[in-house]
Design a protein that fits this description.
The complex is a heterodimer of chains A (about 300) and B (about 260). By secondary structure, chain A is mostly helical. In chain A, about 75% of the residues lie in helices and about 5% in strands. Chain A has 14 helices and 2 strands, in the order αααααααββααααααα. The longest helix of chain A is centred in the first third of the chain and has 31 residues. With about 260 residues, chain B is an alpha/beta fold. In chain B, the strands form 2 sheets. In chain B, strands 6-7-8-3-9-10 form a 6-stranded mixed sheet, with helices on both faces. A 4-stranded antiparallel sheet of chain B has the order 2-1-4-5, with helices on one face. In chain B, helix 3 runs parallel beside helix 5, helix 4 packs across helix 5 and helix 5 runs parallel beside helix 6. The longest helix of chain B is centred in the C-terminal third of the chain and has 18 residues. The relative contact order of chain B is 0.17. The mean pLDDT of chain B is about 85. The chains are: A mainly alpha (about 300), B alpha/beta (about 260). Chains A and B meet through helix 9, helix 10 and helix 11 of A and helix 2, helix 3 and helix 4 of B.
């Protein structure tokens, strides 16, 4: 029973991070009709920035005391720095790099974002080198709780909480605010929104920034338990694609459901069929594509 | 009554074809006017010139005394010229309430604020709810626009234009594609809102019963020019209108209401 509970927690943990990444990817596609291949690397960028700041502050060098670094609450407060860095990158990239390509065929946008993927990869390698960057001090300081007879890291609950909060906030944001109305209208008919006086360029940069913020937040909250490593961006991108293929590209509800499905299947896979875990995920995506090509929540 | 809108010898040419040929057209404050004419007479082109979807080749358009001939659509909306669309153009995946709220947001021009608190927007949602109630759509506030009936979509279309708080509202065939029985309630609703708010309305309409019942004045267009301009009674007896537009020298049967 305890083991089952731990599997549930792990699945939720995984789903939380996946929702943040895939939700951002889906939001950007929903509004701008751009498949951002660099999205996974913005997640990685967020993870690296947070790990770097925490690694720097948690060592005695920075604080000047022997033996201990900044207290955990300070580190925790600085954790979202990675999300802000990814958002800033997004706010910079959309107007400069993506905007000139909206009127071109989709292939150009794919090429540009693929180029961006490789550039961010190299920027990370250049800034932080080839070795993993750890922020595990936060994870360790949180300690663990006992679930039945087993110890379970307390920090994981924080990640699940952040994922759940993000989902609630996003829902309220999209469906209950002024910006949400404008965003949904622009997503549905960009030209008509412009005719009504909506500044479409501004909506685009805001949506892209928000999407990148979500990816960066995913990276920032997971890095204390997993470290930032090269290649994490592409791994996340592939899993996000599975999530949005299952849930429906452009739908936040779909991203949430897809993330939960992938989280559960992945946890089950790691436990019972580790050899074919990824294959099962791909097969599920393929099955959804066969039955409902637009995804479970997708617009046809 | 003073003049709200005036076009002075406006011309719009499409290649060889003169869609609007030196038209002098006026709308008085607070009047409900019908624009009639066969297809290709230039009604929609004239409205497009006034609302800014097209730019006039020659002539001037004055709105409340200001020359708006070269202004873009957005500025004309701000100035108070709004129109509903002939092909009902709604955001189908937004609720009726959201559709109206969007118009209010764009009227306020504050869509730039990314994080406005919910409280700051409460008056907007209230206003949107009130607008829906005016158009008898309050029961459908949460319905996606795509799920409304054709008649309700027509009303929502006008409600959106109304939410832009216009001084002058163009209604492009507000009852086209709607069953005969639905026409009167739709027009009753629209015209009563327009009259109670003192908005001037110009209605493009093919249904002569609707035209004669609801308008104060009728402007008949033919081949890009104004053929006749007068009260419903004058138009009903106008020889030129009867022969060119209605195609028979017999006067049309008197309509109920009488305008």
């Amino acid at each position: 029973m305890d083991i089952a509970l731990i599997h549930v927690f792990n699945a939720l943990l995984y789903a939380s991070v996946l929702f943040l990444i895939a939700g951002g990817l889906s939001l950007i596609y929903g509004v701008m009709r751009i498949v951002n291949l660099a999205h996974g690397n913005l997640y990685a960028f967020g993870a690296y920035v947070s790990a770097w700041i925490i690694g720097y502050l948690s060592t005695s060098v920075a604080v000047g005391e022997a033996g201990s670094g900044a207290p955990t609450w300070v580190l925790l407060a600085l954790l979202p720095a990675g999300a802000l860095a990814a958002a800033a990158a997004g706010a910079l990239l959309e107007p400069t790099l993506l905007r000139p390509f909206y009127k071109r065929a989709e292939e150009y946008q794919l090429l540009v974002t693929f180029g961006l993927l490789m550039i961010i990869d190299d920027v990370i390698r250049f800034l932080w080198g080839p070795y993993p960057l750890s922020a595990s001090v936060v994870f360790e300081n949180f300690g663990s709780v006992t679930v039945g007879d087993t110890l379970y890291p307390t920090y994981n609950f924080l990640v699940i909480g952040v994922g759940a909060l993000a989902a609630v906030f996003l829902w309220a944001f999209i469906y209950r605010t002024r910006f949400g109305v404008v965003l949904r209208a622009t997503s549905q008919d960009m030209r008509m929104s412009a005719a009504l006086g909506v500044n479409v360029n501004r909506v685009y940069v805001q949506a892209f920034t928000l999407g990148c913020f979500m990816a960066g937040l995913g990276g920032a909250i997971i890095v204390p338990s997993q470290s930032a490593v090269l290649g994490m961006g592409v791994d996340a991108l592939i899993l996000s694609f599975i999530v949005v293929v299952i849930g429906g590209l452009g739908s936040l509800e779909g991203a949430l459901l897809g993330a939960l499905i992938v989280g559960v299947v992945r946890e089950a896979g790691i436990t019972w069929f580790p050899e074919v875990e990824l294959a099962v995920l791909y097969l599920m995506a393929a099955a959804v594509l066969l039955v409902r090509p637009a995804g479970l929540f997708g617009r046809a | 009554m003073s003049v709200l809108l005036e076009t002075k010898a406006v011309v719009k040419q499409f290649g060889e074809f003169r869609a609007v040929d030196r038209v002098d057209f006026r709308v008085q404050e607070g009047e409900v006017l019908a624009l009639i004419g066969s297809n290709g007479a230039g009604k929609t082109t004239l409205v497009n010139l006034i609302s800014g979807l097209l730019t006039a080749d020659e002539g001037h358009i004055l709105f409340r005394g200001h020359d708006v001939t070269k202004q873009p659509v957005k500025e004309r909306i701000r100035a108070g010229i709004a129109r509903s669309f002939q092909l009902v153009n709604l955001f189908d995946q937004l609720s009726a309430l959201d559709n109206v709220a969007l118009a209010i947001f764009s009227r306020q021009g504050k869509t730039r604020r990314l994080l406005s608190l919910a409280d700051a927007d409460r008056p907007v949602w209230q206003e949107a709810t009130d607008v829906l109630a005016l158009f008898r759509l309050d029961a459908h506030a949460r319905t996606l626009a795509g799920g409304l009936s054709q008649g309700e979509r027509k009303l929502l279309d006008v409600a959106i234009a109304y939410a832009l708080k216009p001084k002058l509202l163009f209604l492009d065939e507000p009852t086209s594609g709607v069953g005969t029985r639905e026409k009167a309630p739709i027009m009753d609703t629209i015209v009563s809102v327009v009259r109670s708010e003192g908005i001037s309305a110009a209605i493009i309409e093919h249904d002569m019963d609707v035209v004669f019942s609801y308008s104060d004045r009728i402007v008949a267009m033919h081949q890009g020019t104004i053929l006749a301009d007068g009260t419903p009674d004058q138009i009903r007896r106008d020889e030129k209108v009867l022969t060119t537009l209605i195609g028979t020298p017999e006067p049309p049967r008197p309509s109920q209401g009488g305008g």
